[in-house]
Specification:
alpha+beta; five-stranded antiparallel beta sheet
Length: 691
């Protein structure tokens, strides 16, 4: 045992290299028209995404190098993400993973279907995996359907996608907003006039003289192509006024009553649009002669935070109040759902165009920018929905199961601790035990998917060596609670609490054993000598799996199939026939041999036995006659966990309580039976002398 512990310690100090981004020739074929893969932007696998015209349309990147959150295999789930310039997901594709539930369990189809849900969603949206719970505060959250029996894995994938996308956004798209934009407060009524709007900077003005327009084209082909500007250098080329009409108080200070009503009807139909009034009193004119109503103005553009805003004509006929300046006027609209925040600074640009030449003239342009922002007091700013930490989401989504599991575990700990003797002495102990195992199989196993696996500690080992985060353990709080209880059991009883009472596959084997007895099938057990040797096999398998984890982690999911748990419990035998045949083999063998897999092969049982070394006490009572001369408990122990000396071998004890029942029974315990008859049990040598 010490040698095995030393081997495990050596393995724990090994170092595993991290993976690099995929080569370009692997990524490029995955980008389908009308998009193409552009140039690499850094050494972390981030590429530009090009549209059909060769212009930049977004970014392409892998999640593995940017957000290497470890999955249950210990390695990250690597996905390819296509993100447009506004932070909207174009596509998410699966590249690499070793998640056991998908590799050889459910298959990749449900995982791929899950990833399809990202298309069209923005990183601005509060995306969460799960289903709505409670009422009220979470109504604004966008829920992505998880994958049954693999929620923990898809949560890890989800967090990887968001973490990588936000990393790219922070570096490449500084204008991405993390909070919902402000919207006008319909209840605010503040008396204002046009003069007030100008004085308070609510209505802002950009004046460009002809001389300034000429200066913008100085030294270019178009420097002399505006005779009117050269003739009147002090005259105005652009006298642009802009004001946000979204706040009702501002709109009332600008529009006539009839136009105000018309604007109200427009906003009732398009409540997410922010109306912007623009007026030019000079000769620029806001739009060209080719402009078509209800489209984007061809001489005006807008940006916020470095990202473009979609301006569009609201196609409204309106009149302004007499005190408002007269000129070419339009009401434009900007959709707040696309990230526009009217209470934050944004830029409105007017384009000056000049033509050079008579036939097929060359077009030149210059831009003049006005910075705008409506006062915060006119707006309501919703508190963004609070996205809980992934482990909190996981707990809330399974809170009913967790409460039920907590109650079950509390009852079991009480029954196997302070109430152990009463339980073992109960006349219906066997039916009670079988009923408990049925609940464990149905609730913890099939329903709760709480079958512990050697994959989890091995993934933890790999993650620790890679210097990664162990937060992935929190994605499955149901199993984590069982792990915590099993570890508590190490201190109190050794491996027996989990292996004897909480393991669903162990319970199935025990049911198989009882079925074999009811069918009167022959029972076979290897000789005690071979039984002792076979018990060391599980430690060898554990050491081999640790080696695979360290030196060939890509094969861990295959090597871990030595456990039939995934087949029998996780997928309920809905797998390819070799896996089903392997799991069924152990259950059929259980008809003849008592829990052979648990005793000889289970690497998780080996780990549990090692953990049980921290047991603080010998909790099974013994008498001086136990083992010398009485051998009843040893003979009755189906696990072979009692030595000929009467000493309990706790590393093989499954806490079935059969020996406790015998020890406490005046009708079964040989020393008690003889004591009741007034006849002490003589030691073997004394009985031989009398003979």
């Amino acid at each position: 045992m010490r040698a095995l512990l030393c081997l495990l310690w050596i393995c724990l100090t090994a170092v595993v290299a991290a993976a690099d981004p995929s080569p370009r020739d692997r990524i490029a074929p995955l980008i389908v028209p009308p998009y193409a893969l552009g140039e690499a932007l850094d050494d972390r696998g981030v590429y530009s995404l090009l549209n059909s015209g060769g212009a930049e349309a977004g970014y392409v990147f892998e999640t593995g190098p940017l957000a290497p959150l470890p999955g249950f295999s210990g390695g990250p789930i690597n996905m390819l993400v296509m993100l447009d310039l506004q932070g909207t997901f174009i596509d998410v594709r699966l590249l690499d993973h070793n998640e056991p539930i998908f590799v050889s369990g459910l298959g990749e189809a449900p995982f791929l279907k899950f990833l399809e849900q990202y298309r069209g969603h923005s990183i601005n949206e509060p995306l969460v995996v799960g289903t709505p719970y409670g009422s009220g505060g979470g109504a604004d959250l966008v829920y992505l359907d998880g994958v049954t029996k693999a929620t923990a894995s898809v949560r890890i994938a989800h967090e990887s996608i968001l973490a990588a996308a936000l990393a790219v956004a922070r570096e490449r798209m500084q204008g991405i907003q993390s909070a919902p934009p402000a919207r006008p407060d319909p209840g605010l009524d503040e008396p204002l006039t046009w003069e007030d709007l100008v004085a308070q900077g609510i209505a802002r003005n950009l004046r460009v003289t002809n001389a300034e327009a000429d200066a913008a084209f100085a030294g270019t082909l178009w420097a002399t192509d505006d005779p009117e500007a050269r003739a009147d250098p002090d005259g105005l080329y652009l006298d642009l006024w802009a004001v946000d009409l979204g706040p009702p108080s501002v709109a009332r200070a600008v529009l006539s009553p009839e136009s105000l009503s018309e604007l109200g009807r427009f906003l009732a139909v398009s409540p997410q649009d922010e109306p912007i009034l623009v007026i030019d009193t000079a000769r620029h004119g806001l739009v060209s002669k080719d402009f078509v109503r209800n489209t984007a103005p061809d001489l005006l553009s807008a940006t916020q935070g470095g990202l473009p805003l979609a301006l569009r004509d609201a196609d409204l006929l309106f009149e302004t109040l007499p005190e408002v300046l007269e000129g070419t006027a339009m009401i434009l609209r900007i959709d707040r759902r696309l990230g526009f925040d009217p209470a934050a600074d944004w830029e409105l640009s007017a384009t000056a165009l000049r033509e050079h030449g008579q036939f097929q003239p060359e077009i030149g342009s210059a831009h003049f920018t006005l910075t705008l922002a409506a006062p915060e007091r006119f707006f309501l700013r919703e508190t963004p929905p609070q996205k809980l930490a992934p482990w909190q989401e996981a707990i809330l989504n399974r809170q009913t199961d967790l409460w039920a599991l907590t109650g079950l575990l509390a009852v079991m700990l009480a029954a196997l601790g302070p109430g152990m003797n009463r339980l073992a002495d109960h006349a219906l102990f066997t039916p009670i035990r079988l009923a408990t195992l049925a609940i464990v199989t149905g609730f913890i196993g099939f329903w709760g998917q709480g079958q512990l696996s050697i994959v989890t500690p091995l993934a933890t080992l790999r993650t620790a060596l890679d210097g990664g985060s162990l937060a992935f353990l929190l994605y499955d709080p149901f199993s984590l609670l069982i792990w915590a209880t099993a570890i508590l059991g190490f201190v109190l009883w050794g491996r027996g609490l989990f292996c004897g009472w909480l393991c669903p596959f162990g319970a199935l084997q025990e049911f198989a054993h009882h079925a074999g007895r009811l069918l009167r099938l022959p029972q076979w057990d290897p000789p005690a000598r071979w039984d002792g040797r076979l018990k060391w096999l599980k430690y060898g398998l554990l050491a081999a799996l640790v080696g695979v984890t360290l030196f060939a982690p890509g094969h861990l999911d295959t090597a871990a199939e030595v456990e039939p748990f995934k087949t029998a419990i996780t997928t309920f035998f809905l797998r390819d026939w070799p896996f089903v045949a392997y799991a069924a083999l152990w259950l059929v063998l259980g008809l003849f041999t008592f829990k052979g897999f648990c005793r000889w092969v289970c690497p998780l049982g080996a780990l549990m036995a090692i953990g049980g070394l921290i047991r603080g006490r010998d909790w099974i009572a013994r008498r001086k006659e136990c083992g010398s001369p009485c051998q009843l408990c040893r003979v009755r122990c189906k696990y072979g966990a009692i030595k000929a000396s009467g000493q309990v071998q706790y590393s093989e004890c499954f806490q079935c309580l059969d020996c406790v029942t015998i020890h406490n029974s005046p009708a079964a315990c040989v020393p008690l039976v003889l004591a009741g008859k007034g006849r002490p049990l003589a030691p073997p040598q004394l009985r031989e002398a009398k003979a």
